[in-house]
Amino acid sequence: MHELALAESVLAIAGAHARGRRVRRVTVAAGALRQVVPGALTLAFALLSAGTPLAGAELEVRTVPAVVRCRDCGASSEQDGFPLACAACGALDVEVTAGEQLLVEELEVEQEAEVSHVR
Q: Any idea what the CATH number is for the domain that residue 37 is in?
């Protein structure tokens, strides 16, 4: 399950950018060609965030469709599956222009960093 490794990376990125502030929500863009199972990524995120400053944060996974540009006719088209082919002319010589990414797009954080008081 590669979602566990992906969740570790998402947590590291979110934690670094939150700079001590409580994270409420993390939005991730996952390209369709990455073959990420959103439910598995959400579960892995919840399990790995327990006991960390990101505990309780919601993970939103936005699926980005695969898009190709035809090298023969120049048309761009969204793809539903394999083989990747031009929707306009049927050529298989295509360049993937979207759908391979996995990006942390947005963090919703509280304004102030949490301060712990030690007595």
A: 3.30.2320.50
